[in-house]
Write a structure and sequence with these properties.
alpha/beta; Rossmann fold; seven-stranded parallel β-sheet; KR_dom; oxidoreductase; 3-oxoacyl-[acyl-carrier protein] reductase; SDR_fam
């Protein structure tokens, strides 16, 4: 005789903290927002279009008590300030910023125009700089804060599967993380980055041909794509109050494609 034990997800317990996530329209950003919300954070999901992030906020909490959405163009410092103000007006404060928004574009090195280069860098690097400035100043004035920047394997190995502009920008994310980490530490603010390798996300399966995807998997020492849920859990760990001694770090999660 076998006994079936029914299990249910652990109830969400509000931890009293507020997190703002950029680039939460879909993909990794949406997974991060869901993970933080499940961990007890009130979450402001932001993106370049209100529709998808509002859908995500409604999914997390239809009442709007612990989840909300707003438009944020990460190339605009004013938009970051407005997002911070939106969080403060709704929940009274903010504790965590996840700089996730990014944009990649596969182009041959010598075909990248100055305009192409600037467009990719402005989203992937300017956004991190502006977000760290706006939220870092606010967090330091309150004596506490956590900033987690999403880097990439491309910024460490030269971007073998992405454009040079994307790789250069993501390399800059690691450096900016260190700069802000050093500057903000005395204000009780930590700044860290997570650098994922290829991830098992719907967008990857939609845009990469099956044969090429198999080749990518074969090139990874562990033989599999990374888990977006694990990346999000790592972000949540770095965003926690207990992570006070982690600062200026880049956590590599790439299946062994880059080792140091």
């Amino acid at each position: 005789m076998t006994t079936t034990v029914e299990t249910t997800a652990a109830p969400r317990i509000d931890n009293g903290q507020v997190a703002v996530v950029t680039g939460a329209t879909r993909g990794l950003g949406a997974v991060i927002a869901r993970t933080l919300h499940a961990a007890g954070y009130s979450v402001l999901a932001t993106g370049s279009r209100i529709g998808p992030v509002q859908d995500l906020a409604d999914e997390l909490d239809p009442s709007g008590k612990t989840a909300a959405a707003t438009v944020l163009d990460v190339r605009s410092k004013d938009d970051f300030s407005a997002a911070l103000q939106a969080a403060v007006e709704r929940w009274g404060t903010a504790h965590v910023l996840v700089n996730n928004a990014g944009r990649s574009q596969v182009q041959a090195l010598m075909d990248i125009s100055p305009e192409d280069f600037s467009a990719i860098v402005s989203t992937n690097l300017d956004g991190v700089f502006l977000g760290c400035q706006v939220f870092g100043s606010y967090f330091a004035s309150n004596g506490y804060g956590r900033i987690v920047n999403i880097g990439s394997l491309a910024g460490q190995n030269g971007g073998t599967a992405t454009g040079a502009h994307y790789a250069a920008a993501k390399g800059g994310v690691v450096t900016l993380t260190k700069v802000f980490a050093r500057d903000l530490a005395s204000g009780g603010v930590t700044v860290n980055s997570v650098s994922p390798g290829p991830l098992d996300l719907p967008v990857v399966h939609e845009t990469v041909a099956p044969d090429k995807l198999e080749a990518v998997k074969a090139s990874i020492p562990v033989g599999r794509l990374g888990s977006a849920e694990f990346i999000a859990s790592t972000v949540a760990l770095l965003a926690s109050p207990e992570a006070a001694s982690v600062n200026g770090a880049s956590w590599d999660i790439n299946g062994g494609l880059f080792m140091r």
